Amino acid sequence: MLITHDTRCALDAVVDLVNTAPEDDTTPDALPDVAALDVFVRKHEISDVGVLSAFDLSAVRKVRGRFARIFAAPDPRAAASIINELIAAAGTTPRLTDHDGYDWHVHYFAPGASIADHLAADCGMALAFFVVAGEQERLRRCEAPDCRRAFVDLSRNRSRRYCDSRTCGNRLHVAAYRARRKEAAG
Questions:
Q1: Rounded distance, CA 108 to CA 57, Å?
Q2: Contact 114, 56 (CB under 8 A)
Q3: Given 14, 57, 165, 172, which is the most exposed site by the fewest CB atoms within 10 A?
Q4: For each of the chain's 186 residues, which pLDDT tens digit applies?
Q5: Between 76-89 and 115-132, two packed helices, what is the crossing angle to 10 degrees?
Q6: Nearest-CA neighbor of 150 among 159, 142, 138, 158?
Q7: Do the Cβ atoms of 158 and 137 come closer than 8 Å?
Q8: Half-sphere exposure of 14 toward its Cβ, with a 13 Å CA cutoff?
Q9: For residue 104, how far is the Cα from the chain centroid?
Q10: Parallel, antiparallel, or unpaired: how do β-strands 95-97 and 139-141 relate?
């Protein structure tokens, strides 16, 4: 599956956005205020964003919840339904652009769109490409028991199980190794 630079940027943004949500009632929201949303926008170099407000923060959190539902969708039909709602509500307006030193690429959000509509359109279309390609199962949640972070499995053989092999994957492998050693010694 060919993933263009702008699609990869949108995938990174949607994964990071979904992962800002609290995992449960004991963890804080990683988008607690407009300043955090501004940091998110700058980190992901999201273009054409005006002055952010509390309204934008609320709208982005709602979009984030819909994106989370896509990562939890049991099948492509369910994922497609959510994606269709997102991109339709965003007023998707595909257009070619070559801004900020990047080659030609497609923006799906309408000129002057809010940050929530911008994310819904661009990130929604990035996820749509996976459903269209029959690759919806690549939109995953970490399999570590104490982690449910979202990620996109871009491995060649669709075998990635953890959001980060250096943290969650390594921690589980070390725990399994220690359990085997303890059992062998015991």
A1: 21
A2: yes
A3: 165
A4: 678 888 999 999 999 999 999 988 888 999 999 999 999 999 999 988 889 999 999 999 999 999 999 999 999 999 999 999 999 999 888 889 887 777 888 888 888 899 999 999 999 999 999 999 999 999 999 988 888 899 999 998 888 888 887 778 766 666 666 667 777 777
A5: 150
A6: 142
A7: yes
A8: 32
A9: 23
A10: unpaired
What are the DSSP E strand ranges found in 24-164?
95-97, 105-107, 139-141, 150-152
pTM over 0.70: yes
Q: Can you read off the two tokens belonging to residue 17?
A: 């956005």
The gap from C-alpha 120 to its chain's centroid, in whole angstroms, comes to 11
What sign results for the dihedral spanned by CA atoms 20, 100, 5, 77?
positive
Q: d(Cα 126, Cα 12) in Å, to the nearest integer?
A: 10
Q: How many CA atoms lie within 13 A of 162 on its CB side?
A: 14
CB 139 within 8 A of CB 130: yes
Helix axes 34-43, 5-18, angle to 10 degrees: 150
CB atoms within 10 A of CB 16: 15
Q: Report how far residue 20's alpha carbon sits from residue 64's, in angstroms, rounded to the nearest whole number.
A: 9
Three-state secondary-structure class, residue 13: helix
- How many residues appear in the chain? 186
Helix or strand run (H / E) with residue 77 = helix 76-89
Distance of CA 182 to the CA centre of its chain: 39
